[in-house]
Amino acid sequence: MHESLTDKLNQLEQKFAAMGQDMASYLEGLLQADYLTYWDYIHLETLLSLQNPKTAYPDELIFVTYHQITELYFKLILHEVDQIAHIEPLTAAFFTARMGRINRYFQLLEESFSIMITGMEREQFLKFRMALLPSSGFQSVQFRQIEIVSTSFRHLLIGAPEEPEHIADLYEFMYWKRGATELATQQKTLTLRQFDQHNGAKLIRLAEDYQAKNLHHRYQQLERNGQITPDLVAALREYDWRVNVRWKLAHLRSAVQYLHKEPEDIRATGGTNWQTYLPPKQQQIIFFPELWSDDERQNWGQSAGIPSKPD
Ligand code: HEM
């Protein structure tokens, strides 16, 4: 028998023997097994069965599918952050390479947002959107998870007291609690209340778990060890800008495109405070504040231009 084949068989035998298993039985299993197909591996049938519009408007398929595509990218982003959070020892090279992947995903999401902004008929959108209430992308728990694993919890709060220190007590001050407020009554929308009921406890646990391993914390660890490189700083700045300015602006453009009404009309017809809440310059969310100058922080979200490399 070919030498490398004998080698492989020996290795296999050792692998099975280590678990008290008989290799011959497994080889018999291989003889019986079918070849793997693309469609089984990708779960294509299941995947294509998951787009279920609620109305007969053809453009709703675009809406539901694009949300799913975004959620899949969010999953990949969380997957990369998870690796940065847990690898020991973390190096600047690994951190930078993984941030490069994440930045590419966000760049793609931002560029593809034109599928939402100009890719659907407004008349259809305004009709089918009514059938989806009170659900909203605002309820994307993966987006909130990305924020929480990216930075110190305090950077996501507005108006929080210096004390208390417990994350559970600070949760009410998360910046997005200011969104999804009904203009007419100034009450939290059902969208927000349902989100909290379903995800609040889970998000608090995640924030506690990531206190000492979120991206901002990992950056600070490297900094204390004198291991920061200009490439890592550039990658983290790019990330901050892609999530908190560029993606938010692309998303805002879709809201403006479909939902823009004069303030009087909104008050008359209900609706939320999205016009004042969504613009990144209002939110001022920054994951890595120390990587930006005072000037850059003060002008956060004012311009969509690419941030220059720091000196
Ligand atoms: C035509 C397309 C879209 C429109 C018109 C739209 C509209 C809105 C509005 C009005 C809000 C504010 C929440 C509220 O007032 O209830 C919101 C929030 C949000 N939406 Fe969308 N959206 C669109 C597409 C998407 C997509 C594709 C995603 C991807 C998951 C998404 C994710 C989010 C997120 C994460 C928030 C919260 C943003 C924040 O807190 O800053 N949206 N959206």
Which fold name is given in CATH as the topology? Answer: Methane Monooxygenase Hydroxylase, Chain G, domain 1
* SS content category: mainly alpha
- List of distinct ligands in this structure: protoporphyrin IX containing FE
User: How far from one another are the termini?
Assistant: 62 Å
Alpha-carbon Rg, integer: 24 Å
Q: Overall 3D geometry?
A: globular
Low-pLDDT runs: none
Residues in helices, as a percent range: 55-70%
Summarize, please:
It contains 17 helices and no strands.
Description of the structure:
The protein is mainly α and 311 residues long. It has a single domain (57-298), classed as Methane Monooxygenase Hydroxylase, Chain G, domain 1, CATH 1.20.58. The protein is 61% helix and 0% strand. The protein contains 17 helices and no strands. The chain has helices at residues 3-18, 23-32, 38-42, 44-48, 60-86, 92-112, 114-117, 122-128, 141-150, 167-170, 190-209, 215-224, 230-259, 263-269, 274-277, 280-283, 294-298. The radius of gyration is 24 Å and the shape is globular. It starts with a helix and ends in a 13-residue tail after the last helix. The site of protoporphyrin IX containing FE has 23 residues, from helix 5 and helix 13.
